[in-house]
Design goal:
Chain A has ten helices and no strands. Chain A is mostly helical and about 230 residues long. Classes of the chains: A mainly alpha (about 230), B alpha/beta (about 260), C mainly alpha (about 290).
């Protein structure tokens, strides 16, 4: 079985006899995968930036947290996929719906993890920096932001693990393009191996992104393994 | 030669078979039953490895180790251990923590409950049975650890810097609690510390461990209880001076700023 | 007794949050007022609350297909509020039951298998790579596979939800076990605990905090899975009504179902938070998040 899936994935990657026959543009899985990847990365980057910024702002100023908190927990609580039909109607089938969907999901997750990262950081670090003469800006940029990075990376990996499924599921509901659309088309001709091949290819893309995140984290958090950031009492 | 007590014969420990370095190097040592032995030395010198080997958590690569005449194959019911870290299980109430070792010995419920109560009373925590560990101070959690391990009635008690993280007053109080329990139970105690003063208060005998070997084996025959006077007697000062000299700390500090 | 003052205190301390929610609702209503209508269903692109709770709610009676209690609209019957509530009740129950069954199965299988794999440190280390790969598989994209493997029916949706939650919990369990501080296990060993005792009384409670921190995430995933499963996997349930409404571009009905799903998801969220607080009663306040 696995070798059939792998074979299917490889032979149909760049060009496929099969896809035009089931109502898809010519070309293999690749253009669809890249379409999904574009949506995941665009939406993911936007969402991550918004989520981290919102989280940091909420941690710095209570009032901002009170405004953003309910909105973020609204999106954090609701299964984001329930909004897919709306977004497809509002934004059309060009991929914007997936981008928005992924962005909201990523933002909600990064908000929670960023906030947790800043709040879990022992206040002693910031106080210590203050006694060393660090300004408020320096304390934020050099102490609280790096101190919350381990949590932020945890959120990043979770967001980018989920983003691919969300984009693909949205594509299943509408549009002429994307890996979700391919999966639905293959379903109509009972091509299980093809579906598994597309799912596996998506997993490979997801692993590549996750690997990149891990590499960045290894670089940015060289210091993290020995440090106890929460400063919790023994 | 009597077989009770602790006997190490040429014990070596090597953590990484690919590295030449020995954590313990050919240690031969005899500790008679009922003795209170303190182990001091620099960190990384092998103190912890030595007592973790006694506890059965580390296997010797060479040599033989018997406790009470039996070869040590792993942790055993005849030996208990108190760790430096806070090991009291936070998810068990105090009573259940003290019962943990008794339950492992399949003691019937009523008996182990009664026994746990007794030992909690013995460490002065009779009222804390129903509490969560988080409701206790660090010192009180150490009392729970003492009650837990003494409740299992080990012949040998291994303590790896158990009071290292506590403040001076709490530590002093726990010293007298521990010495009381030791007198009542006649347990053999092997106690690691980085504090010479602590070793002087507690030990019948003080071992200096360094570079995986025993650098010195000193008697500490000060009269008990060892209050301020006993600790500042000429005998005590002589022992302190000997330890300081053996650790290479006496004249100046050759190792630069610490 | 403190109900009223408690309420007042809540309102005072959350006044900015409450104002935010009120503004959001008002903003939605204004957008509804300004928005153009969709071509097919002639409902506004952004439906007003009047539309959602009036016409759209009444329209739910279209989804009542049983020949009793309320008229069947597709056979020429009249739209009734009774039919609407019956239909909503029926489809909501189906969705919730699928969710519960899936989460239950997924939890038992995921956590169970995770603990079994963790029994031997060797197996745990060997499983590390495959589990890392499994973590990245786009679970939501796999629903068509479950239609083939299990069927285009409730069992298919339940097994899909179980797979999605189970996969995440399996990875989480194995990771949490390897994160248990070694000192607890060593301490238990010196107290004479057997391997089984260490597992049941040390490992399992010790992984709870980490497992609980992912419980809300798993719950959200379960909701996504059941809705996605119903989108294309089956002919009933709230997710299915949503796609029916989407075909007709009936935004009012879509919004109504979305609101119901949101309310249910929020309620389950509160419930799980409560369970977490109970299960982690022993944890120090500072570590409980």
């Amino acid at each position: 079985m696995p070798h059939q899936v792998a074979g299917n994935a490889i032979f149909n990657l760049v060009s496929s006899e099969r896809l035009p026959g089931i109502g898809l543009p010519s070309g293999g899985y690749l253009p669809h995968l890249l379409f999904t990847a574009r949506n995941v990365l665009t939406g993911g980057v936007i969402g991550v930036a918004v989520g981290i910024a919102a989280g940091l702002a909420s941690a710095e100023r209570r009032e901002i947290g009170q405004v953003l908190g309910p909105i973020m927990s609204l999106f954090g609580t609701m299964p984001i996929i329930v909004l897919a039909p709306f977004f497809l109607i509002w934004f059309g089938l060009s991929g914007t719906a997936q981008v928005v969907q992924v962005a909201i999901y990523s933002a909600a997750i990064l908000y929670v993890f960023t906030l947790r990262g800043v709040n879990n950081l022992s206040p002693a670090f910031s106080e210590y920096a203050a006694t060393l003469g660090a300004s408020a800006t320096t304390r934020f940029l050099r102490v609280r932001l790096p101190g919350s990075l381990p949590e932020i990376f945890g959120g990043l990996r979770i967001a980018f693990a989920g983003n691919w499924g969300i984009a693909a599921a949205t594509e299943m509901l509408g549009g002429q393009y994307g890996s979700g659309r391919v999966i639905v088309a293959l379903r109509s001709v009972y091509d299980l191996t093809g579906i598994m091949a597309v799912v596996a290819l998506l997993a490979v893309l997801a692993l590549l992104v996750d690997g990149t995140l891990l590499a960045i984290r290894a670089r940015l958090l060289r210091w993290a393994s020995v440090a106890n950031l929460s400063g919790a009492a023994r | 030669m009597s077989m009770d007590g602790i006997n190490l014969d040429g014990v070596s420990v090597r953590y990484d078979p690919n590295v030449d370095e020995l954590a313990l190097n050919d240690i031969t040592l005899r500790i008679p039953a009922g003795q209170f032995v303190c182990i001091v030395g620099k960190s990384g010198g092998g103190k912890s490895t030595l007592v973790r080997t006694l506890a059965g958590l580390v296997k010797p690569s060479q040599g033989s180790l018997t406790v009470g005449g039996k070869a040590v194959e792993g942790p055993g019911e005849d030996r208990g251990m108190v760790f430096q870290e806070d090991t009291v299980f936070p998810w068990l109430r105090v009573q259940d923590n003290v019962e943990f070792g008794l339950r492992a010995r399949s003691m019937p419920k009523q008996e182990r409950s009664r026994k746990a109560q007794e030992w909690l009373a013995a460490v002065g925590l009779a009222d804390a049975a129903g509490k969560w560990p988080r409701e206790l101070s660090g010192g009180m959690r150490k009392r729970v650890a003492l009650a837990t391990v003494f409740a299992t009635e080990p012949e040998t008690l291994i303590m790896d810097e158990p009071f290292g993280a506590l403040d001076f007053v709490t530590r002093s109080v726990l010293h007298s609690v521990l010495l009381d329990l030791w007198r009542q139970t006649e347990t053999t105690i092997v106690f690691v510390t980085h504090d010479i003063e602590e070793a002087l208060v507690l030990g019948d005998r003080i071992l200096i461990v360094s570079d995986g070997g025993i650098l010195a084996d000193l008697d500490c025959p000060l009269p008990r209880p060892r209050l301020e006077d006993e600790r500042s007697s000429p005998e005590a000062l002589a022992i302190t001076r000997e330890i300081v000299r053996r650790l290479g700390l006496s004249a100046g500090t050759p190792e630069g700023p610490a | 007794m403190t109900g009223m003052t408690g309420m007042g205190a809540f309102l005072r301390s959350h006044r900015i949050g409450i104002a935010t929610v009120v503004l959001l609702v008002a903003g939605w209503e204004i957008a509804a007022w300004l928005s153009p209508k969709t071509v097919l269903a002639q409902t506004p692109l952004v439906p007003s609350f009047g539309n959602i709770l009036g016409e759209s709610l009444l329209g739910m009676s279209d989804y009542w297909k049983f020949p009793f209690w309320a008229p069947i609209t597709s056979l020429g019957g009249e739209q009734t509020y009774l039919g609407a509530f019956l239909a909503l009740g029926w489809h909501t129950s189906l969705t919730v039951l699928r969710l519960l069954a899936g989460v239950f199965l997924g939890t038992v299988l995921g956590v169970g298998l995770g603990l079994v794999l963790s029994w031997s440190p060797f197996v745990r280390r060997a499983a590390y790579m495959p589990l890392g790969v499994m973590r990245m598989v786009p679970l939501l994209a796999m629903i068509p596979l479950f239609q083939f493997w299990v069927g285009t029916n409730t069992a298919g949706v339940i097994s899909f939800v179980a797979m999605a939650t189970g996969a995440v919990l399996l990875v989480g369990t194995v990771n949490s076990v390897s994160n248990v501080p070694a000192r607890y296990v060593e301490y238990a060993r010196t107290l004479g605990a057997s391997r089984l005792q260490i597992f049941a009384r040390v490992i399992v409670p010790a992984i709870l905090p980490e497992m609980m921190s992912s419980a809300l995430l798993v719950l959200g995933l379960a909701w996504s899975a059941v809705i996605a499963g119903e989108y294309i996997g089956i002919d009933s349930g709230l997710g299915r009504i949503l796609t029916f409404a989407q075909f007709m571009s009936n935004t009012g009905r879509m919004a109504l179902v979305t609101l119901i799903v949101l309310a249910l998801a929020a309620a389950s969220n509160v419930f799980v938070r409560h369970l977490i607080r109970r299960a982690l009663e022993w944890m120090p306040e500072s570590d409980r998040r």
